[in-house]
Amino acid sequence: MTLDTPFTCVLDVKASLGECALWSVDDQALWWVDINAPSLNRFDPRTASNTSIALPDAIGCFAFRPRDGGFVLAMRSGVWFADRHGRPTRRIVEPPFEPAHHRFNDGRCDRQGRFYAGTMNELRDAPSGALFRLDPDLSFTRVIDSMTISNGLAWSPDGRTMYHADTPTRTVNAFDYDTSTGTPAHSRVFARFSAEGDRPDGCTVDSEGCYWSAFYRGGKVVRIAPDGRLLAEYPVPAMCPTMCALGGPDLRTLFVTSARQQRSDEELAQLPQSGGIFAMRVDVPGVREPSFAG
């Protein structure tokens, strides 16, 4: 298959389910996870090298924790603090679900340093997923419930609008966000899609407030204006891109993780770099990724 795409594969890692790509301004590296082959990874674009840190169970998302140079990890076994080497050191929240068929999925920090982590129902038989908030004092709160796959979490540059998607609904919602309390309110449809492959997965927001979304099973990334207009779409050399992150020294490189899980041999023969990390240059820079404040 010949695909006309602006993306280049910068790491042909063949991840089962690459996800949660976050750019670290401090060490100029892209951190990401493989959910199925549980690991936290550090990709250095300058050397094209990747360091993989094995984890004991599935990890959905994480955040940087500068207080000790480590991380917050949302894993199937709960929410953990990890040291600067990515090794879990202390469980701070028991899993708020039945681990046999639920796990954490997409998540990140808001601009005030609260860590949000969503969950998903792997059986897809009930809307039993939810979005949770971990505050710096380590209190843990259910914020939104009644969903299947929590995804697409991001905030506007000023932090006053929160975006969130339940992937199977093909809809991204926007909320008014109270930055003083970490409370979303007044849910409304931000963008709704209808094609089979229009499944909004992980995302990022650039400095103009535009929302970049990876379409799982759609083979593309889209850029959406703050008023919900579709501005552009870009094909990715993988049917299942999973998350976007703006990084590089000037925050003008769009990185996209992807997945190989459950893809046919025929598809993988046509798109052999599925599971890789892709990158393209963009005109509008991103915003520094917030860290956990606790």
Secondary structure elements and pairings:
Layout: E1 8-11, E2 18-24, E3 29-34, E4 39-44, E5 49-54, E6 59-65, E7 70-75, E8 78-82, E9 88-93, E10 102-109, E11 115-121, E12 129-134, E13 140-147, E14 150-155, E15 161-166, E16 171-178, E17 183-192, E18 200-205, E19 211-215, E20 220-224, E21 230-235, E22 241-247, E23 253-258, H1 265-270, E24 277-281
Would you mind describing this structure in some detail?
The structure is a single chain. This protein is mostly beta strands. It has a single domain, classed as Neuraminidase (6 Propeller), CATH 2.120.10.30. Helix content is 2%, strand content 52%. The protein has one helix and 24 strands. The strands form six sheets. Strands 1-24-23-22 form a four-stranded antiparallel sheet, with no helix packed on it. It has a four-stranded antiparallel sheet with strand order 2-3-4-5, with no helix packed on it. A hairpin with a 4-residue loop joins strand 16 and strand 17. The mean pLDDT is 96.
State the gist of this model.
The protein is an all-beta fold. Helix content is 2%, strand content 52%. The strands form 6 sheets. Strands 1-24-23-22 form a 4-stranded antiparallel beta sheet, with no helix packed on it.
Mean pLDDT: 96
Q: Quick one: CATH superfamily?
A: TolB, C-terminal domain
Give me the count of strands: 24
Structural class: mainly beta
Helix content: under 10%
CATH topology: Neuraminidase
